[in-house]
């Protein structure tokens, strides 16, 4: 039989409940439903035939009216929406004298620019998370989505990659719990029936793709797996201890050329001419890179374990790039050029 609470204990508990309630009223938070309501209402002017009232949102979310009214109250308390005089629809609240502080403008512009830099990953959960973070830090920005689309620092349009969000969610869960995962890898050159058991270390975003960097128990080494070619992912109940030097950057041999690794660190030497001879001096390919210049060329030497990425960059510059070392790189370069020449003939 539980012990009856004393008057003092009841008073303390009630005080704590009151404090939580007041804190909630003073610092309301936007939840997933509030984000969605704001997104819909921002687009409402394009659909004047629709009545955006509580009944509409009740049907949209397939939830109770009281739940919708609670979300609406939060948005009203935060001065984000208001009720139209006609038909009782809700709309984004526009305040003529609403002025962002200079500091807020700087912060919004900064994060909007970051959002622009991640544009090629807009189909990944991380892109949506950044948007929600902005709304959380500055709720007023949620009223006007164009505020987040006005970044003054952007990247040029990039090829977008269709990310398998289900795979992302499963792997992200395994990362948070340090759990081993099992899956099939379905690239054409692999055995599609073989199952991999790996320790997931990191998700890596590179060149519009997302990779899992993980330790393979079968291969006894760390490997990169393209997220979109992983199938039948299962999070096992087996935990692993994250190694001290698990970060992908420790496996690039000093190279800075994206998501590619091998155990073979080599010394590269490449001569650039034409426009490329000046371009190369303004970019960092590796931690230990060095340049030698003359009137017609710039020669770069550096260390890296990212052989295929180096080869790709050389070909992207056509006749303005000539590999000098190592021998394997020169050999592959000549083989590719010979194959291209045969196709031209």
What brief labels describe this structure?
345 residues; alpha+beta; five-stranded antiparallel sheet; four-stranded antiparallel sheet
Describe the structure.
With 345 residues, the chain is of the alpha+beta class. The chain is 37% helix and 21% strand. It is built from 10 helices and 11 strands. The protein has helices spanning 7-26, 32-42, 54-61, 65-77, 102-117, 125-137, 165-177, 276-279, 307-316, 327-344, and strands at residues 81-83, 90-92, 179-185, 195-206, 209-216, 221-226, 230-239, 266-273, 290-293, 297-304, 321-325. It has a 5-stranded antiparallel beta sheet, covered by helices on one side. Strands 9-10-8-11 form a 4-stranded antiparallel beta sheet. Strand 5 and strand 6 (221-226) form a beta hairpin. Helix 3 (54-61) packs across helix 4 (65-77). The longest helix is centred in the N-terminal third of the chain and has 20 residues, at 7-26. The model has no long low-confidence stretch (mean pLDDT 81).
Q: Terminal Cα separation, in Å?
A: 94 Å
Mean pLDDT: 81
- Share of residues in strands: 15-25%
Uncertain stretches of 5 or more adjacent residues: none
Q: In this structure, how is the largest beta sheet organized?
A: 5 strands, antiparallel
What order do the helices and strands follow? HHHHEEHHHEEEEEEHEEHEH
Globally, the shape reads extended
Spatial arrangement of strands, main beta sheet:
6-5-4-3-7
Backbone CA Rg:
28 Å
Helix count, per DSSP? 10
Give a count of the beta strands, DSSP E runs of length 2 or more: 11
């Amino acid at each position: 039989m539980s012990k009856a609470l004393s008057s003092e204990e009841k008073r303390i508990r009630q005080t704590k409940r009151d404090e939580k309630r007041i804190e909630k009223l003073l610092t309301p938070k936007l939840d997933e439903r509030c984000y969605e309501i704001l997104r819909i209402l921002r687009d409402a002017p394009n659909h004047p035939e629709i009545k955006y009232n509580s009944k509409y949102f009740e049907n949209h979310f397939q939830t109770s009216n009281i739940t919708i009214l609670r979300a609406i109250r939060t948005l009203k308390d935060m001065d984000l929406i208001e009720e139209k005089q006609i038909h009782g629809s809700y709309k984004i609240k526009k305040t003529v004298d609403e002025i962002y502080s200079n500091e807020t403008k700087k912060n919004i512009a900064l994060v909007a620019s970051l959002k622009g830099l991640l544009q090629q990953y807009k189909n990944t959960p991380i892109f949506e998370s950044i948007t929600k973070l902005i709304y959380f830090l500055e709720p007023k920005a949620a009223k006007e989505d164009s505020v987040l689309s006005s970044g003054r620092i952007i990247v040029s349009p990039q090829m977008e990659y269709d990310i398998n969000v289900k795979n992302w969610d499963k792997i992200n869960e395994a990362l948070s719990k340090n759990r081993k995962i099992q899956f099939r890898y379905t690239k054409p050159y692999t055995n599609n029936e073989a199952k991999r058991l790996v320790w997931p270390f990191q998700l890596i975003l590179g060149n519009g793709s997302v990779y899992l960097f993980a330790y393979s128990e079968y291969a006894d080494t760390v490997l990169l797996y393209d997220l979109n070619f992983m199938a039948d992912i299962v999070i096992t109940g087996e935990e692993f201890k994250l190694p001290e030097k698990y970060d992908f950057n420790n496996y690039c041999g000093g190279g800075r050329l994206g998501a590619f690794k091998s155990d073979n660190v080599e010394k590269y030497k490449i001569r650039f001419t034409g426009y490329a001879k000046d371009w190369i001096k303004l970019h960092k390919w590796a931690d230990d890179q060095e340049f030698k210049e003359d009137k017609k060329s710039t020669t770069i030497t550096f260390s890296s374990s990212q052989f295929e990425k180096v080869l790709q960059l050389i070909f992207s510059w056509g006749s303005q790039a000539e590999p000098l070392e190592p021998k394997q790189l020169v050999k592959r370069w000549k083989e590719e050029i010979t194959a291209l020449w045969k196709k031209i003939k």
